[in-house]
Amino acid sequence: MSDRATFFKSAKGPKGKFLTGNLDAFRSDPPVFLQQMAEEYGDVTRFRLGPLKKVYLVSNPDMIKQILVTKQQHFVKSDDFKVLKPIFGEGLLTSDKEFHMKQRRLIQPAFKKTHIIDYAQDMINITKEYLSTWKDDEERIITQDMMNITLGIICKTMFSMDFKEGYQVVGKPLETALKLTVKRMRSVIKLPLWIPTRTNRETRKAIKELDRVILEIIQKRRNDPVKYDDMLGILMDARDDENHIGMSDKQLRDEVMTIFIAGHETTANALSWTWYLLSQNPGVEAKLYEEINTVIGDKEPTPADFMKLTFTQNLIRESMRMFPPSFVTSRKVDKNVEVNGYHFKKGDMILVSQYVMHRKAEYFKSPESFIPERFENNFIKTIPQYAYFPFGGGPRVCIGNHFALMEAVLVLVSVAQRFKLNLAPNHHEIKTFPSITLRPRRGLRMILQKRKTTDQ
Ligand code: HEM
């Protein structure tokens, strides 16, 4: 019994440098590095990110299902999320175990179907208002526009604020805090926030400002006799089944901040990648216009149109296949666990990558081609579960998945009804930039071309 290797499979991987391991290769292009690892070493590969940080990449759908779903109680969120704690607090994305489950139960009602339909009308209105300043032939930074639109939508659905107010009050301090947090996340040595380096001081200041702003909004609401039916109103009314206690101001702050951040950058990136892919695939673009002409025509889209926009839904699914905004999901082993003959020990870090799985030729024919039609006829049911999982899975599956798909579809058709977007001439080469989410490196510059609804 002394030699475990005879009983458990052992993962193979590249040797790496003495001190940094494979950190340099990983940091230069994380999605591509992960893809190469999976191609070279198979279902489970092992490498090092730094002197001590041993990481396993698991690229087999059945094993991913065990990690995210059937054996999920053996795992917790990885230490990477700790860097995000100063900003997310103990919100859904960073909390674990019973506390996470309790919070999830409290928050889930804010995402039920009837509420999403209410939010859908806001999505349409905000996009329409935002587009009112767009002009024919204009060059725009579309990545920034998509971020502004989704920020506007979350400001409205969460706080009933319009875009300008939302951006001034919440968006600006949030942008600063996020930028600094990402800078800290990407640095090799993450000094504790209390050490007064310049970045740490700036980060603390930005987070303090954000805390002040959100807590002020919450306290104002506590004293307001008006009943709000926005997301904050629903979260403030939520009561625990057992003791009927609602969330404290601090917990509300953490959940609001988490939903706010998780809920706008991801969808903005999904939309930006979709615009890029459409500009490179005129056949797909023509089919999008055809569907818009048939389902919506000249009128404003309505929430009910969403169900009829099946090609557009598949277009978003396909865009998230090629460029999953959440390109990797990490977990830390909390209790020793065996998965398909591999033994993972407490403290091990496990990665499962949407980018890697979504580009496997065994599940997706011509994986490098943009083919929304592949999602027709219940395609997802014909491939193994967790070969495609843009929203994660199990008890921690994205709580905003229906919100996100509704939002991406309605924003996309609202823009495409009015404009065709072409990549600006002499555009820099489009590459991925893995921040917290996968975005186009150095943004996307596009030229607007006004459409008549009869255009194909
Ligand atoms: C295209 C858009 C989106 C993508 C690709 C996406 C992806 C994901 C993924 C992969 C996870 C699981 C992370 C993990 O297991 O570690 C997640 C969790 C989460 N997402 Fe999303 N998301 C999107 C949009 C949204 C929206 C619109 C909201 C809210 C309005 C949202 C709120 C959250 C929250 C709160 C969690 C944590 C859930 C939990 O752990 O219980 N997301 N998302």
What does this structure look like?
By secondary structure, this protein is α+β, with helices and mostly antiparallel strands. It has a single domain (60-450), classed as Orthogonal Bundle (Cytochrome p450). The chain is 49% helix and 11% strand. The protein has 18 helices and twelve strands. It has helices at residues 23-28, 30-41, 61-70, 85-88, 97-107, 113-131, 142-159, 163-186, 198-222, 231-237, 249-262, 265-280, 282-295, 305-308, 310-322, 354-358, 379-382, 401-418; strands spanning 44-48, 54-58, 75-77, 139-141, 329-333, 337-339, 342-344, 349-352, 419-423, 432-434, 438-440, 445-450. A five-stranded mixed β-sheet has the order 1-2-8-5-3, with helices on both faces. The longest helix has 25 residues, at 198-222. The model is unreliable at 1-6 (pLDDT under 50). Residues 92-93, 104, 258-259, 262-263, 266-267, 270, 325-326, 329, 390-392, 396, 398-400, 403-404 line the site of protoporphyrin IX containing FE (HEM).
- Ranges with pLDDT <50 over ≥5 residues? 1-6
Supply the CATH class. Answer: Mainly Alpha
Tally the beta strands. Answer: 12
N-to-C SSE series?
A: HHEEHEHHHEHHHHHHHHHEEEEHHHEEEE
Number of helices: 18
For this structure, the CATH topology is: Cytochrome p450
> How large is the radius of gyration?
22 Å
- Report the sheet-strand fraction: 5-15%
Q: In whole angstroms, how far apart are the ends? A: 69 Å
